[in-house]
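Subject: Predicted fold for Glycerol-3-phosphate dehydrogenase, 513 residues

User T.R. writes:
Posting the sequence so we have a shared reference for the thread.
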Amino acid sequence: MTGDPVHDIFVIGGGINGCGIARDAAGRGYSVALAEMNDLASGTSSGSTKLIHGGLRYLEHYEFRLVREALMEREVLWRNAPHIIWPMRFVLPHHKGLRPRWLLRLGLFLYDHIGGRKQLPATRTLDLRSDPAAKPLKPLFRTAFEYSDCWVNDARLVVLNAMDAAARGVELMVRSRVTSARREGELWIVTVQSVDHPEVTRSFRARMLINAAGPWVDQVLQGTLARNDVHNVRLVQGSHIVVRAKFNDPRAFFFQNSDGRIIFAIPYEDDFTLIGTTDQDFKGDPKDIRITEGEIDYLCAAASEYFAEPVRREDIVWTYSGVRPLYDDGASKAQEATRDYVLKVEHGPDAPGNGAPMLNVFGGKITTYRRLAEAALEKIEAELGARGPAWTATATLPGGDFPATGFEAELARLRAEYGFLDDGFGRRLVRLYGTRARMILGSARSKADLGRDFGADLTESEIRYLVTHEWARTADDVLWRRTKRGLHLSEDQRAAVDDFMHSLPVTGIAAAE
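User M.O. replies:
I've generated the structure tokens; pasting them so everyone works from the same file.
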């Protein structure tokens, strides 16, 4: 071990915060290794409502700093990744007996003006007696407010950060569990075990440890570091249902509920509507997270308060749940717990200020991941010394090297280069991969050149790209995180993808660990 190189930083966790910190640190010149025990974005980071948003409802809890920071990030992230992030308009119907109209106007006025909005359009009032947004709603709603936020493909945001981190030198390992971490003087000694091949272990030395394990952050402290009585996070379950499309309008809906909570109904994957989220405390192991019967009933009932055609259990085609690792601030209700992030540095228990430092990451939301990473780098710099300057605000993510408003032009260029692409197939490829779609299409002159089509335009060429360049190892990695094609394929088609994945060797950067 004494001959092994010493990394500046070792990151535990391959969610949005771990990958974001690793990418930022590598771009400043730090040497970084990262281990994720499952697939990238396999936990909370792919279980979000898939919005880059300020968090309109957080204004009610006076979280003005968090809302302002999040609002400012919307256009920054849109410029960084215009293929997977784009503007979306939200329709908030006024519901008599709930929040009064003046309060909604005030909240949206603040929303428009405290976050440096430049390209996103401002709020406007809708007359639902004539606006097309009213078509799927019950006729009792007369007025609504329409405002701007952004949509994000959350799992792809994580993968793109990981790809950029690896391109900048991060040693990134998936399906690799950290089994122990101990201080040895001024260094951490970290042991990593392959999940697929438990007999394979590796040891790393690092000057600083980053615990970005999300819902498992306390488990890392208890198990890996042998701590007792650790309680830093409040685990809050958020679940979503996906139903066949309830409306054709490109706008999303923001629905208020009589219990003070809110849900969204969002156009999803062309043919569906995404409805969520719930907010309830979670006491189990995050790996066992599943939507509950009560949550299904709640989401169906809440959406049916607004839609003329009720949302029924039999309409549901898919569900997913995530566990938010919120910093435990003692809030009485799950929906009131802060969504802000908390970063804490600690040293050896017997040598305050000495010993190898560890940074624990608590809370956060996908919208502010980049700012969280910058704040983490301030802590890292204080411990290890400064290297390069902050840089991520103006750096595009892989495939996002075209103007924020240039998606249609990029699609047109791709279709001009590959004449066999229809609009739907080309649009999907640009939405997922941006300019890197050409790496999938290569020299193809017909769709047949892309190999077998498993259904819904998912081809051998695309799967091979995901295995070689994006750490995809299983059918779930491809179907439910990186492409969402699982929604569009039959059970037999999904099984065929699984068989094909098993036939492929692990190559490229995915084999680096």
